[in-house]
Amino acid sequence: MSVHTDVALELDDIQRGVLSPRPTPYAATYLAFRIDDRGDGRELMRRASAAVTSAADSASPLGETWVSVAVTCRGLEALGVPRASLDTFAWEFRQGMAARAKALGDVGESSPEHWEAPLGTPDVHVVFTAVAPDPAHLEAAVDRARPAYDRLSGVTAIWRQDCYALPTETEHFGYRDGVSHPAVEGSGIPGSNQLEVPLKAGEFVLGYPDEIGGIQTPQPTRLGRNGSYAVFRKLHQNVGEFRRYLKDNSTGPQDEELIAAKIMGRWRSGAPLALAPQADDPALGADPHRRNTFLYESDDPAGFKTPGGCHIRRANPRDATVAGEVRLHRMIRRGAVYGPPLPNGALEDDGADRGLMFAFIGAHLGRQFEFVQSQWMNDGVFFGANNAKDPVTGSHDGSTDFTIPRRPLRRRLAPLPRFVVTRGGEYCFLPSLTALRWLGGLHD
């Protein structure tokens, strides 16, 4: 791995949504568009370059509010980006998420034929995202972006997803969300784990050296540099089934919360098992400076505190001994809740659509998002657990169980059903402000 060095990121050219953690609490909206007329699509890009917020704009009058614009490969084609340029983008991006479904574990009820239209189809070209601390600021952000797409007859709005923070500031399974965020060299934004050395800028922003010294930049440089890749996934959560599983496998309410913590790697308050192995510590869970500052290898290599197969240890093994180099697979993840909460205590789903809009940001779709999804979430070989899958998000079919390391005998829970179902998604490119203007200035 490369050594730590200072790097000067061109923050005024990078979209703020690439580097900034979402506010807490938050409100968010995703808007998808289809480009029917190339000229209007290019005009959309020109207007978008004035609507998006840069990473340097941390003192915006709107506060922790920003708009981001992402473009799919089909969108770049619709804008008239030359094939020679498209061929310099990541091949996973060129294929699109639907074509990668089997590798991602999107099978059965999660397969693309069951996705929510128009997600996964060639019609999704541009995705606007607005994020704010509350609905009033969100509306102001949407109003700011509206002139970019208003009155463009050749650009059609085809999908919208509104998201918001639950009153509990958790996701639908009841866990505190948005806890972990890596430090990126040159971003000026501290990471949530004070024990983690900042990652090279090129892991997340195109055009800069990454952890192995490589520089990935789609061509021409004006298009690729200061951009990033984004993955958007709409994930439906089977909340009633999750609650029933906890209840059916526990001896009582206290044991139920312990199982919930062992499955996630954190108590629902956000307190990690690594720092609070015996009982929940809500004060720790609420402290952003402490709740993510821990490692595994020094005092918990066997997973007696934090099971190796739990969700957070799979998503980021930190310093644990696993196959591969962990820093090459780090991701910026963001989650935003959609849909109404299932009433407390309800063990049967009410038919409402509820879940999480998952967002990944990074410069390496293959070795970051796809690797983590296929190898760490949907397999267990990397830490010696054969075909065991992630207990929360894994593509379960009722054939694999979850094991909790324990002395003198490990505890084995019942086979896991699928708690999270993919409802659709897209692979996108987050252009720099320079690239948005370049796209807007294309000529046939």
UniProtKB/TrEMBL annotation:
<dbReference type="InterPro" id="IPR049509">
    <property type="entry name" value="DyP_N"/>
</dbReference>
<feature type="domain" description="DyP dimeric alpha+beta barrel">
    <location>
        <begin position="29"/>
        <end position="144"/>
    </location>
</feature>
<feature type="region of interest" description="Disordered">
    <location>
        <begin position="278"/>
        <end position="315"/>
    </location>
</feature>
<comment type="similarity">
    <text>Belongs to the DyP-type peroxidase family.</text>
</comment>
<keyword id="KW-0408">Iron</keyword>
<keyword id="KW-0575">Peroxidase</keyword>
<dbReference type="InterPro" id="IPR011008">
    <property type="entry name" value="Dimeric_a/b-barrel"/>
</dbReference>
<dbReference type="Pfam" id="PF21105">
    <property type="entry name" value="DyP_N"/>
</dbReference>
<keyword id="KW-0560">Oxidoreductase</keyword>
<dbReference type="GO" id="GO:0005829">
    <property type="term" value="C:cytosol"/>
</dbReference>
<dbReference type="GO" id="GO:0004601">
    <property type="term" value="F:peroxidase activity"/>
</dbReference>
<dbReference type="InterPro" id="IPR006314">
    <property type="entry name" value="Dyp_peroxidase"/>
</dbReference>
<protein>
    <submittedName>
        <fullName>Peroxidase</fullName>
    </submittedName>
</protein>
<dbReference type="GO" id="GO:0046872">
    <property type="term" value="F:metal ion binding"/>
</dbReference>
<dbReference type="GO" id="GO:0020037">
    <property type="term" value="F:heme binding"/>
</dbReference>
<keyword id="KW-0479">Metal-binding</keyword>
